[in-house]
Amino acid sequence: MNRRLLLIILALLTAMLACNKPAGQQSAAPEAGISVEQAIQMTLTAVALQAPAQPQQPPAQQPPQQPAQPPQQPAIPSTEAPTLTPSPTPSITSTATPATPMVSVSVNTNCRTGPGKIYKLVGALLVGEQTEIVARDPSGLYWYVRNPDRPGEFCWLWGQYASTTGDTGSLPVFTPPPTPTFTPTPSPTPTPAPTFTVAYSNVDTCAGWFIEFQITNTGGAMFQSYTISVTDTVTSETKSFSAEKFEDWNGCTSAGGYEDLDPGDSGFATSGTLSNDPSGHAINATVTLCTEPSQAGTCITQSLSFTP
After folding, report:
1. Within 10 A of 112 (CB to CB), how many other CB atoms are there?
2. Structure pTM?
3. What is the spatial distance between Cα 244 and Cα 120, in angstroms, rounded to a whole number?
């Protein structure tokens, strides 16, 4: 049975090999004395050797690889100037700083020949006024300015109440003048107070009646004029008279006297002319003597009442 099966298989294999063998190539005959299994194995090996090579399948198509993108280059700014839309320029109001430094004060301030009260007073800057600053002192407490009261002159102004405008930082620094030597003012010799005494002398007549008074200078000042006013209390008449001579009268004639009444001198002064004889009437009188003519200078007054 096995042998028959072997022959059948060999016949089939031989036919298959004959179909696939190239021309001129002889088939190998199985050798005698081999077993069925060996014959099958040999036949299968021969078939495998004769079988045409299977065409190789082309490799699976890979999807085309995208080319690598070149690195992005930074954008190069265009050399062409962009067109700009001009924006409106705001109008700027500038406050110009005055070129000339000026000063004003909140309190009336004296201006002197130097920076201090020891210097002579030569002017003053009043509230509401201003003047030019020329320099400052080393301490920065005083300004050297144009004298507000004397054009063309300069003086030192205390800065306590001062307000400045303009550039004061570039002002020069002036050295103050030397401190003046203090010379005490001698005390004036007091003038003796003018004093006098007055007394009724007599009633005289010359186109009316007038009363004479005797006056004695008891002070240290000279008298140069007088005024006398008398009132007759009976008639209520009042008369006044002024003169710059101290004369004695006899009726309408002068008996002499003094131009001035020096200290220690005695002279006469007369009243104005009354309409009625004042004899026996109560008289009120006021006598004023002055140290200068025309009732000027120092004047002193005395009052008296009498009955001629």
Report:
1. 19
2. 0.41
3. 42
Structural contact between residues 135 and 152, judged by C-beta atoms closer than 8 angstroms? no
Q: Give long-range contacts, CB 8 A cutoff, 24+ apart: 45-52.
A: 46/13, 46/17, 47/13, 47/16, 47/17, 50/17, 50/20, 50/21, 51/20, 52/20
- The two tokens of residue 286 are 């006021």
From 182, 205, 226, 208, select the one nearest 274 (Cα to Cα): 208
Closest CA to 196 of 123, 52, 301, 269: 301
Tens digit of each residue's pLDDT (9 = 90 or more) over 183-193: 777 777 776 78
Query: If you search the block for the tokens 């005959």, which residue do you land on?
Result: 29
Q: Tens of pLDDT along 241-299?
A: 999 999 888 888 888 888 899 999 999 999 999 999 999 999 999 999 999 999 999 99
Indicate left, alpha or beta for 3 from its phi (over 0: left) and psi (-120 to 50: alpha).
alpha
